[in-house]
Structure formats: C-alpha cells, structure tokens
Write a structure and sequence with these properties.
CATH class of the largest domain: Mainly Alpha
Number of domains: 4
Oligomer: single chain
Largest sheet: 6 strands, antiparallel
Radius of gyration: 34 Å
CATH architecture of the largest domain: Orthogonal Bundle
Helix content: 25-40%
Amino acid sequence: MNGNSGNWTDPVWYILDHNTGVRHRYLFTKSVKGERRESKDILLLNNKNYDSIIHSEPYLELLKIYTLEVQSASIVNNSKQYRVVVASHILTEAEKLGGLNNVPLNFWNSIPMSNIFWDFCTKNKLIVRKNRPSHTDRERGADIYRQRSEKQLKMTPDSMIYALGDIFTQVFCDIDEDGNLLKGGHIKLDEAVSMTTVLLGLAAPNRLNSEIPLLQNQRLKVLHPKTGNEVYYLDWPGSKGYLDNQNHILKVLAPQVKRAIGFFNLYLKPERHFIRYLKNPNQTWEAILKGFNVEKERANNIDFSTDPNIFTVAYSLGFYPVNYEVDTLSTPDAISITENSKKWRFNSFKWCKSRKRRLSKKDFLIRKSIGRICPSDLILNLTGSNNALYSVQRVLYCSCISKKFKESLDLPFLITAYELENSVIRMIYRDIPKFPLCYTKLDKGIDLESALFCLSPGKHSITSTKGMAGSPLYILPIKRITHLFTQRVCDKNKTSSNLFNKYGFGAQYLKLHSLRHFSNTQAEKGGIPLSVIAAWSGRKSVNQTLEYIHTSEEEKADRLVSTLDYSETKKEIRLISKDELHENHGLPASQTETGICIQELTVTPCSYVNDFLSGCFGCESACYICGDHAAINVLEQDLKFQKIRLQKIQRALESFISQATKDWWVKHSQGTSLLEQLIAVLKDYERGQLVRIAPDRSCFFITNLNTKHVEKKTLLLTSESELLAALEVESKTEESVPESMRSLIASFGLKNR
C-alpha cells in the first residue's frame, strides 16, 4: 500500500496482472452483507480498532490462500474481487459459529456464487457435506466458451429489434430532430427513458443497467475529420472505470440518438436547476435561474425581490401549474387544537367587534399563488385525502398524504412553510445520502445537476415510482432509473405497463444484456476486428468478446472463402487488395510461418502471446492449410520441444512442485496434445482444405474452399484429473510438502497425506 512493497500481514493487497496491466485490490476485513466495506486504505490503516474488523486466524490465512488461487484464475477482473468478497462473507459467518462446517446451507444459498468457494473448501477437505449450494455457476473465463444452440443464444431476435424501432418512432413522434417537443405535442417520459435505453444499447454495446444512470447531461457530439466520414460519440463513463469516456455511436443510429439525447437535455433542464437550488438554498434568483428562461405568465406570479425558497423556485421552473394557488393561515389563533393533538377546529363563529359580525373560516385564510409563498406562512399538516388549500398536501402538490408519510415528515400540526421546506430537503437527503452526489448500485456516482436522467417522477406523472407521496419536489435517485425502463420492457410481472403489448406487438420481454450480444455479433459480421469490438464494448481482454459473438461456423466459412484465393499453381496464400476486401466484405488474410492470419494487422497489431515456439498456435485468428509441408515441419519441431519440456517437469517429482507448476503442466499437456492432433489433421486431409481450432478447443473446423462445406472433427483432450494422476502428484504429496507449510496446513485441521 501507499506505493510500498506488500507483505503477507497487510490488510489490503494489490496484485498486478501482467497480462492486462490491472492492479487488483483485495481487502481482508470481515464482510457483512448490506454493509459497505472500507474503500480508502489510509482510513483502514489508521483505525484504532483494527483487530476487530480483520478476520482472525486461521480464517485470515485461508482467505489469503484462496485469494492467490483466485488471482491465477482465467476470469474477468471484477469477478476475481467478487469471489474473494463472497469467501469473506462465508468466513465472517464461520467465525461467529465456530467453523465452516457450522455455517448452515441456507446461508451459503443466500450468497450468490458461493458454489465456487464451496468447491475450494471441499477440495481441500475443509468442509464435509454432500449438499452443494443451489446456485447456477456462471463462468466468465477468458478461455472458457460455451457452444450454444439457437434456443440458447443470448442475442436479441431480429423481430424484436424491428418492434423496438417502431415503438421508438411512435414514442418520439412529437419530438423534432434536435430534441424539441413540438407545439401541442405530448410524450410520456417513462416510455422515452425506456426506448432511449434500448436505442443506446443498439448504438453502442454497453452495460445498460449499470451505465445508463451515469450518463452526463450532453448532446450528441461529432468529429469532422479532414478525410473520411463524420464520427459520432457521447461522453460515457461506463461501469468499468475507463478514463477515456468518448464512446463511439453508430452513424446509422446517430439521428435517433441526437433526437433522444437532445430531448432529455432540454426537457429535464428544470430538474437540474432545482438541484442547483437544493445544493445551496442561500443563492440568489440570478444564480439559480442562470441559463433558464421563466415563462412570462409565471414570472408575473413571483416576487423576485424576495429571497427564493423551495416552493417559489419549483414554481418558477414549472413544477406546479401556472395558476396553482394555496391558502395560508393569517394567525396561529385561527385554529384550536386539543391537548392530545388528535382534534382541531377553526375558531369561527366568534364575534368580531371591529367587523361587527361573527368570523368565518375565510376570515383566517389568505389565498395566494404558490409562487408567492413566504417562509413564515402558516399551513396545516393534514393527513388523508383532504385536499384543503391550506394543507401540506396542497403545498407539496401530493395526490394523497398517508399517515406513514406524515410521520416521515416529523412535523407538528401547525407549521410554517420554512419548516416544511427543511423537512422536504431532509427527506431528499435521506434517499440520496451524499447529495448532490448520487450513486448506482455499483457505488459509481454522478452529481445530479450534471446527470442526463435527473428527473422528478411526480412532475411527469410517473405513477410507478411514488417517492414522497407523488410530490414533484421529489427527485429520483439514479440507482432507481433502471426500474423505469426494466419495468416497461423487461418485467414479466408488469404486463399492464409492457410497451410491446401497449403498441400492438403482444407481451414480449427484452433481456437488456441481449442488446450487447446483438451489437457485438453485428459488428463481427461487419468485419470489425475483435480488438476494436472489445475496446468499443469497454473490455480490456479480446478473448472475453468471443462470448458475446454468435456468428455461425457456416457464416465464418463463407467469409473466409470469399477472402482467400487458394491455388496450387500460384502462391499458396494471396494477399487481397483493399478494393477487393471492401467489395467482398470479407476478412483480411496475411501469411504466417504456419498458415494464415485473418486479423487486420494494419488496424490492430498482433498482441497474441503463447507458450509455444510457433507463435500463432492457439490464436483465434489462426488458420492452417492441409498439405502445407513447410507449416507442418515447423509444427512438428515445436511438438518435439514441448514434449521435452513436459518430461522435464515429470523428472522433477522429487522436489516440491507448486500448484502454479501443476496448473501449467496440465494446461500445457492439453495444448501439446492439441498440437499433435492438428498435425495429424494437416497430414491426413485433402491438400488445400482450411483448418481452424474452435475457441473452446472442443473440435476442429475443416473447410473445403471450393464447396464451402464445413466438417467438424471432435478433439480428444485428456482431463485434468487424468493428467495429474499421470504426474503422480497424490502419491508423492507427503514428501513434496515443505516443512514451512506443514504448520499452516495443520492449523486447518488437515494432515499431510
């Protein structure tokens, strides 16, 4: 920490991943579900009660050992940290109950993805049980891919894309190309949020649930290069913390994005000025309304010579109707309240000498525009459906104040407008604790005044999110923005608000993340290099992108055939021209020492590194030609060398072999077997056929370049358990465990067996 070298006893570890350049932070404090863990190292180090928040031994040792195993796993970055957090949850409970075996199964079931830590514990004989936690394993490995059938594809079907396009057109029919609401036009804001979310998911492959709420207030930006077409982009922070926030937007969808983003930029401007006031209620009118034009009719109902308050500011910004009026009490003596404050009445029917008549209720009330209400004005804290003009319900513009809401206000029966303002601000701060900073569920935040989706549900008649009894003075926390669009396009329990059903397409339900798969797949079909797709999608690993691409092997074969021109009488591999590449919409092809590379190396230089002499072996862009004797010779020499390396490890059985060495031996043994089978295919099959290795290494795809027929040949790789048995690991564990490790193993109640 703090730039110093770490050691085993540190409560926080930073481990550098040399492949990605990412530093992984692991925190070894106790973890309690629902409680946020410390994010600043300096506060942790200065904590006097340090021992109380750190796991005790031997649980701390176990967590650190597990962390080292997780770090070496081939999974995405945030999954590594999450696995350690899950283990910390389990170990915190184990400490309370006196051991891992005492943690009930229902607690394991309550922690998502606890299966992985369970497997680690059972493998090391730390727990003895038969029943496994009932979670679905979700691998996000960099080298693990699943073969999916058409029914299992996560990609959005084309029919749903067409339906969404039609719904977007209908929702935004009254919005011009710059985002202005046409005169006399109408739009439902909740539907606009939903369809804008879908649009952005198609215009750029992003993590919509976690990223849409973080969008900054802006308009679509465009670059005009001296040569080439315009480039469109948005400032898009993303959920992965990338510093470069300029996210490319597809040109074909740029007009729709311009229209939708421009609409929210203009339409939610009043809310952003309202946030500006809430930041500092002592500001002047000029500072609050700078850049905002108050309607002339409203300006006539506001006294700008007096200090602003939450009600007059809200009125000037359009949160109330133009002619909205309230009653205030002229004096506290206007009413009488019983001692228990359960009953009250107006002091009417009393004789007034000055007026020479009995007083009525109207004599105690002063009617005024909400735009002229003063902090000292008196109102009543009434409960229920009573919409009296002198009630809190009227001043807050609520549909109905329940008893529970009245208790939340925590105010006496007779109050001033100033007291009510303070209570409203307190309730906003209750839901947005670090106001004006508002955070998503991922603990990434934005200043609400700068947020694109800063909105008041009550102001726009969004009934699904009540918030402060539907008062327009309530601002929706950005973590609840996702509820607006998921309920209308994703939620199977809300058929009545389903937009597909409402606009005539039947009850359909969209999986938002499927849009990310759709965008990635269409980009790959368009010939965009995987490295570019990965960067566009906010990923640092190209391999992770393969899980999001659902191009069939037949489609890939067609594109390879249209790109490669194999001829026995000429060069075996021909580099096609740029004009031909553009015309055929195929893939680039360049010669390597063992075959063909189909990556556009002029756009994305090769960064593939493996553990073999033939540098392209195992790369997703590598293709091989059957009968290519020069290539086969190179691969055979590589095979001989790799077998010698494996034999060297086997001869080292007398000394201690680390888990990392075992993992390398297993992976490399499988890779060597794969290389041997590849050589056999290149020798046995008809000269000129194209061979590719499936991304999951389950089979070879052998393409006839003349007929375009693709043959699938299953690969046979020895399992990990069989390989370890061949290495004779179990039989030599007693001799291979160093003395320094035996005490640690014994602390967990294990024997050196």
